[in-house]
Amino acid sequence: MERRMIFQDREEFLAALRNLAREGVPQERIQVETPFHVHEVDEILPPKPAKVKNFALVGAASGTVTGFAFTILTSLSWPLIVGGKPIISLPPFVIIAFALTILFGALSTFFGFLFLARLPSVSGFVPKEEFGNAFVITVEPGETE
Amino acid sequence: MKRLPEMTGGQVVLFVLAGGVVALTQFGPLGHDGGTLLLALLFWAAVIEGCIAAVAACTLIKAKWVASVKRELLSVHPLLLFVSVLFLFLMPFVDSYPWIGREGIWFNKGFFVGRNFVLLLLAYLAARRFTIASNGDEEGRERFAGIYLFVFVVSQSLMAFDWVMSLAYPWVNTLMGGYFFIESLFAGFALSGILYAFLHGRPAPTHGPTGRSDLKDIAILLFGFSILWVGLFFAQFLVIWYGNIPEEVSYLLARTTSSPLRELSLSILAFYFLVPFFVLLPGRSKTNPFVVFAASFSILLGILVERFVYLAPIVTVRFGVLAIHFLCFLLLFVLLVGVKRETGERVLQA
Amino acid sequence: MDKPDKLAQVEQDVLAAMKRPGIGYLAALGCSATLFLTLLGLWGYQMTTGMGVSGLMNPVGWGVYITNFVFWVGIAHSGTLISAVLFLFRARFRSSFNRPAEAMTVFALLVAGLFPLIHLGRTWKFYYLFPYPTQRMLWVNFRSPLIWDVFAVSTYLTVSVVFFYVGLIPDFAIARRYKEGLAKRIYGVLSLGWTGTRRQWKNYNQLYLFLAAFATPLVASVHSVVSWDFAMSIIPGWHTTIFAPYFVAGAIFSGTAMVITLVVPMRKILGLDRYITDDHFESIAKILLFTSLIVSYSYVVEFGLAAYSGNPFEMEQFRYRALGDYTVMFWIMVVCNSLIPLTLFVRGLRRNVKYLFVLSLFVNVGMWVERFVIIVSSLARDFDPYAWGTYSPSFVEVGITLGSFGLFFTAYLVFLKTLPVLSITEIKEHL
C-alpha cells in the first residue's frame, strides 16, 4: 500500500525524509516531488550522478567534427578560389565549426534531458492531483509489506 | 597618511643591488642592445601589474576567488617601482625605434619615455595605496581598486602600443592594448594558482572545504581566461589573415613562416590555450594543486615566449643576459612574498 | 508571512499579470501592432517596387537596414549575459531579471533576423544563404562573413529559444495549476507533464548548467562574427582588429539599456517592486557603466591609432567621421554612449530608477546612432575620392526602423500576457 506524506513546511519534510532514510527504506521506493530543487534531499538520499553531461559532450564533439568535415568536404568538392583564400581555409572554417559545436551540444543536451527525465509525461499534462507548493514523499510498497 | 608596509633597510639594499646587476649587464659589453631588458620588463611588468589587478578586480566585484593568496599577491607591488626605474635604463635603446625623428609630440623621445615612466610610477603608487587599503580592510578600498585598474589598463595598453607595436612602425593593431591587459590579468590569476599550490598545496584536513573551493575557483577562472585569450587572439589573426594587406601581413609572416619562430608561434597557442583548456577541463583536475600549478606555469611560459616572438625579428635578445635579469626579478619576487608569509598572517580565511 | 504563504504569494503576484488585459495594455498593443503593420506594408511596397525606394546607392550600399540588424542582434546579447553568464557566476540578483531578459533576447533575434531578408530586396531568394547542394552541386561560400552570420545567428536563436523554454518548464507547471479549461491543457502540454520529482530536478539542474555553459561563449562569439562582417573588408574605419570585443561590449551595453527600458515600466505597472528591487537596478547600472567604459576606450584607441599610423586614408576617415557630413550623429553618439553614462559613478544616481530609465533611452539612441556612424561613414568615404558619396535614409527605411520597434514591443506585450513574467521557481528557491 502506497504511503503518501504531504508537507507544507520544508523542515518537517526534511525531518520525515531523514527518518525514512534512517529506517533503511531503499531509495528506489521513495518518490519525492518538490516545487523547487531542494539540495538537502540530495544529501539525505544521494542520487546517482546525472548523465546529461554525456549527451552534452558527445553533441559538442560531433558538432566540431561535422563543422570541419562539412566545410572541408564541400570546399573540396568544387574547389573555387574565392577572394584569394586557400581552398581549405581554416580560420573561417573554425567559426562554422564553433557555431555547430554549440548548436549540436545544446540540442543534444536538451534531448538527452528529455530522455533521461522521461519527459514529456502525458499523465502530467493535466495531472489528477496537484500538490502546489507542498513537498510530497511517496513511499511505494515493498516486498516485505 | 597611512603607514605603508615598510621594507627593511636590508631589502632596499637588495633592490639597489639587483638594479645594479641589471644595469651592468645592460650597459656592459655583454648587454649592448636593450632588447633583452625590454623582454624582461615586458614579462615582469605584465605579471606584477596583473597580480595586483587580479586582486583589484576581485575586490570590485566582491568575489572571493583569490582571497586565500590575496596578501601575497599584493605584497609584490614594490617591484612596480623597480620596473619603472629599470624602464629608464631603456633610454638608449629607444633610439632604435623606427619612428624616431618623426614629427609630432607623440613621437618625441622625451615624451615617449616620460609617459611610460610616469604610467609605471602611477601604477606603483596606485598599487601601494590599494595594498594599504586592502590589507587594512578599509571601507573605501573599492575606489582604490578602481583607480588602480584604470591606471593598469592605460599602462598596459601603452605597453602594447608603445613598447611592442611601435617596434614595427607603421604596423597598427588596435586590439593589442586590450590584448595585453587581458594577458596581464590572466598572468595575475596564473600566479595566484602558482602561489596557492606552493603555499597551500594539499590542504590539511583541518582547513576544511574552503581551501578546496578557492583552488577550484582559480582553476575555473584560468579555464575561462584561456578561452577568452584564444578568442582575442583569433580576432586579431582573422582580421589580418583575411584582409591580406601586405603592410599588415608582413608582421605575421616574419613570425610564423620560418623556424624557429614558426614552432615558437605554435607553442604560444599550446601554452596559452591548449594546455590550460584540456588540462583543466575534467572536474577532478580543478581541485588538484599540481594540475593547476602546471596550467599556470604553462600560461606564464606562454607570455614569455609570446613576447619573445614579438621582439625576435626586430631586436636581438641575449639569453644569458636574459637569465641574469630573470634571476634578479625572481629573487626579489620570492623575497617579497616570503617576507609577507613570515610577517603577515597565515592563510586568509576570508 | 509563513513560508508556504510566501511561496503562493510569489505565484499570485507574477501570474496576476496574465489576467484580462486592461485598456492601457490594449492601447499600447494597438500602437505597436500598428507600427508593425507599417513595417509589413512598407516592406511589401519595397518588394514590389524595388530597392530604389530606399536611400541605398553607390557607394553606401549598407545603410539603415544593416544598422538595425546589428542593433537588434546586439540587444539580444545582454539577455543571454544576464541569464547564462550571471548564472555561471552564481549571482543571486539575476533571478529577478532573467525571464524578461531571456524573452528580450528571443524577440530581438527574431526582429534582427528580418533585416537581412528586408535588405535582400528579392527576399524570396533568401534560401541562397543556407547550405544545401544547389542544382549545380555548388555549396555556399563558407569563407564569407555573411555565411558565418547565418550560422552564428541561427545557432544563437536556437540555443536562446531552447534556454528560454527550459527555464519556463517548471513555471508552466505552476501556470497549469492556476488555469482552467483550454488554457490548462495548453500550459499542461507546454510543461511537458513536469511534476518536480527527484529524477526530473537532478537532470534539469545539469541541463540548465550545460545550457548556460553553451550559451556563454555565444555572447562573445555571435557579435564578434557580426562585427567581422565589417572587419573582413579592407576599408579604413572597418578593417581593424578591435571590432570584435568593441562590438561585444557595445552589444551588452545597448542590451542592458534595453533591459532597463523594458523592466522599469513593467515593474511599475505590474506591481513587482518586491521582487525587482533598487539593489537589482544598481547591479544592472554597474554593468552599464562598465561596458560604457569599454566602448569609450575603443573610441579613444581607434582615433588615437588612426592619427599615430600616419596612414592618410585612416586619418581622413576618422576626421570625416568626427567632423564630416555625419558630425551631428557622431557627437550624439559620443555624448550618449561615453559622457552621460559617466554619471553612473555616482551611487545615488545608480539607485534612482527614474534616472536609469531616462539614461537607458539615451543609450539606446546613442548605440543605434553608433552603428549608423560606423557603417555609413566608412562606406561614404573610403579610398578613392571619385567614389565618395553620401546617404540619407528614405521614408521607407525610417518607417521600417520604427516598425521593427513595433514588432519588438508587440512581441513583448504578448509575452507579458501569456507567459510568467518572472522566474517564479527561482525566486521561490531563494526566498
**Number of domains as seen in the coordinates of chain C:** 1
Give the largest interface pair and sizes.
A-C, 63 and 61 residues
Question: What's the oligomerization state?
Answer: heterotrimer
Percentage of residues in DSSP E strands of chain B: under 5%
Structure description:
The complex is a heterotrimer of chains A (145), B (350) and C (431). Chain A has 145 residues and is mainly alpha-helical. Chain A has 2 domains: 3-48 and 126-139, no CATH class; 52-116, no CATH class. Chain A has helices spanning 10-23, 39-44, 52-77, 90-116; strands spanning 3-7, 30-33, 135-139. Chain A has a 3-stranded antiparallel β-sheet with strand order 1-3-2, covered by helices on one side. With 350 residues, chain B is mostly helical. In chain B, 73% of the residues lie in helices and 0% in strands. Chain B has 13 helices and no strands. Residues 204-211 and 345-350 of chain B have low confidence and may be disordered. Chain C is mainly α. Chain C has one domain (3-430): Formate dehydrogenase/DMSO reductase fold (Up-down Bundle). In chain C, α4 packs across α5, α5 crosses α6 and α11 (327-339) runs antiparallel to α13 (353-380). Chains in contact: A-B, A-C, B-C. The interface between A and B is small, with 5 and 6 residues.
